[in-house]
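Lest this sound abstract, we let one protein speak, letters for residues, whole numbers for local backbone shapes, and leave readers to judge:
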Amino acid sequence: MAQWLHTGIGGLESLEPGWKRFAVNPFVGGGLDHASTAHITPFGQARVDWKINDDGSAVDVHVEVPYGSTAVVPALDGKELTAGEHNIKIKLS
């Protein structure tokens, strides 16, 4: 169950050994309107915080990518995020 909270609801999952590449793919629904999770990688902290925006049309996502890693966002056609902090918006269908 704990793994599902981290990778599913939080949306943080390693794609390569050592977290060199990881996915940001939160599961939105089930009555939740926000969640956050973090993982200490060999490169530093990877973090995802998400919240459904006020009109319910999108999810506002804050992502922290440690230096030496890349985050992949499947919901944005595999967009890759480099090291640093990013604020992205994922439209809900």
Notes: Residues 34 and 51 are 4 Å apart (CA to CA).
